[in-house]
Design brief:
Length: about 550
């Protein structure tokens, strides 16, 4: 590390790195001590190593479920962070677990997210404290076999919090006070106005959902300990081994010793040894379990922290679609993209050509120009508008140098009122900052359409709860076209827009984008049948058709 690099590291980061090295030494020494005391010459069998690899996958699953819980809690607190940076900060913070009292993880979580206002930082810390509380609760419940009274108290306390609004509100208020104090200690600045937790965060469904996610995440981890114990030959049965692992992780965390070094391992060894069998089997279980949980987590965290810091050091693009322009075409296979283009343009063309062939329209957020090309082929005359300069460059290459393209914002369309016979916007409104911004944009779109003309709004359909979960939490990780901050419109309660009247809502698309060309062709008739069935409203996309009100010329 150069002097220049060292000078750029903040004092908390330098302390975290020092504790990381110290805790690694202590933790590995303590684990090896357990092994040597139990059996001086322990040789891990191939089967134990293999099941240890499965434990590593369980740890990865634990971290992923907890990340989903993290994003869920942030959303309930009205804080929408882009998924990829949020994932980097979440995972990267585990590199600093060796810092006592979880302060390293907390500081890293806030710093790896970049600059934030005090209110946003407080909400991030509140979500972090909420997570830690849920972890304690879940591990207490999962330790039911070895500490049934603790598990019973945890279940009773969780039930009270979920079912009694007053207790939920009081718990949230106390966590908010602690989060505010920690936020002030991490960064100086003006106090600003009081910070309040959104009402939705205190709902029973939020608490219950976060609690179930916590149970699921830690069940994966303790189940891996049970599997390792079975292969090594520890007695007592799977439930006893899993509960022992849960108690060891819980007490190691509550001890506030970095990584539970010298606490979790010894506690787990004592419980497993008490269940019967060879002490060497218990020692092997402890060693493998600690490696594939604690040390794997820290290692993954270190890798994620490096990637997150690299991301923070890169300059941000002014426009998201400029940033992803270089790989924009790769997210949809060409055959499936054309399938969607036809599905989205056909209903618009049927509505347009019914009253005016050769109608002039505006494609807002035209992107690469795929929809403009299809509309032109059918005889319409679209003009494209996009805010991304790089998308317009790609559109001109696709459509030709003479293509009518404009650069501008959906909030301020650079044309006179009533210029177009129709306008359409495809999967762009959900990228706007809020539902109110969507309403303002629709009013502006309606302005440029003549009375009697149409405004077509294509959006993702989140009526299907599984599809909503996929869009909000999984899709931004798989496909960078979404950031995870989107506000998806609900087709069942579209807002009233001044100057526009909702005429119809159409639903379509059930086939996923990974189907092969042959399968897509074969299954397309079945998809059309489902779209017309009572299942239609649960399709992946919807089209809302609005008519422009006013006196027709």
């Amino acid at each position: 590390m150069t002097d220049e690099t060292r000078s750029q590291l903040s004092r908390p980061v330098r302390l975290a790195l020092a504790f990381l090295a110290a805790a690694a030494t202590v933790g590995i020494a303590a684990t090896l001590l357990v092994l040597v005391r139990a059996e001086p010459t322990v040789h891990l069998r191939a089967a134990v190593v293999s099941v240890g690899l499965l434990g590593g996958f369980a740890t990865a699953g634990n971290l992923f479920v907890r990340f989903l819980r993290w994003q869920f809690l942030l959303r309930r607190l009205d804080l929408r962070l882009p998924t990829i940076p949020s994932l980097g900060a979440f995972a990267g913070s585990f590199a600093f677990l060796p810092v006592p009292l979880y302060l390293g993880q907390l500081v890293a979580r806030t710093r790896l997210l970049g600059q934030m206002s005090r209110s946003r930082r407080t909400m991030v810390i509140l979500a972090f404290l909420w997570e830690r509380s849920l972890d304690v609760w879940a591990l207490a419940v999962l330790s039911f076999f070895v500490t049934p009274w603790v598990a019973g108290l945890a279940l009773a306390g969780g039930a009270v919090l979920v079912l009694v609004p007053g207790f939920r509100g009081q718990a949230t208020e106390q966590l908010l006070r602690l989060a505010g104090a920690l936020s002030r200690s991490l960064a100086s600045g003006p106090e600003g106005e009081d910070i309040e937790v959104p009402a939705q965060a205190g709902s029973a469904s939020v608490w219950a959902g976060a609690a179930l996610a916590s149970l699921g995440a830690w069940a994966l981890t303790v189940a891996s300990a049970s599997l390792i114990a079975f292969v090594t030959g520890v007695g007592g049965g799977p439930l006893a081994c899993a509960s022992a692992a849960a108690r060891a992780v819980l007490l190691g965390g509550l001890s506030m010793v970095p990584l539970g070094a010298g606490v979790s391992g010894l506690m787990l060894f004592g419980d497993l040894d008490g269940l019967g069998g060879d002490p060497g089997a218990a020692a092997q279980t402890v060693f493998v379990f600690r490696v594939v949980t604690v040390w794997l987590t820290v290692a993954l965290g270190a890798l994620a922290a490096v990637l997150a810091l690299r991301r923070l050091s890169r300059p941000e693009a002014d426009d998201h679609f400029d940033a992803v322009s270089h790989c924009y075409d790769a997210w949809l296979p060409p055959h499936y993209r054309q399938h969607l283009v036809v599905k989205k343009t056909v209903p618009m063309l049927e509505q347009i050509t019914a009253f005016q062939p050769g109608a002039r329209g505006l494609d807002l957020g035209c992107g690469r120009g795929w929809y403009m090309r299809e509309m032109e082929r059918a005889g319409a005359r679209p003009v494209g508008l996009d805010l991304s300069a790089l998308q317009l460059v790609a559109a001109r290459e696709y459509l030709g140098r003479e293509a009518p393209l404009l650069r501008g914002s959906v909030f301020d369309v650079p044309v006179r009122s009533g210029t177009f016979d129709f306008a359409y916007i495809i999967n762009a409104l959900h990228h706007l900052p809020s539902p109110r911004h969507q309403e303002v944009a629709l009013e502006e779109i309606g302005r440029v359409v003549r009375p009697g003309g149409f405004v077509f709004v294509h959006e993702m359909n989140v009526r299907n709860l599984m599809f909503r979960f996929y869009l909000s939490y999984i899709f931004p990780i798989l496909k960078g076209i979404e950031e995870g901050t989107e506000h998806y419109m609900n087709p069942r309660c579209l807002p009233p827009i001044a100057g526009l009247r909702l005429v119809a809502v159409h639903y379509f698309t059930f086939l996923p984008d990974f189907v092969s060309p042959g399968a897509l062709s074969a299954l397309a008739p079945i998809e059309r049948w489902i779209e017309k069935s009572p299942m239609g409203p649960y399709a992946a996309h919807f089209l809302a058709v609005f008519e422009r009100l006013g006196h027709k010329a």
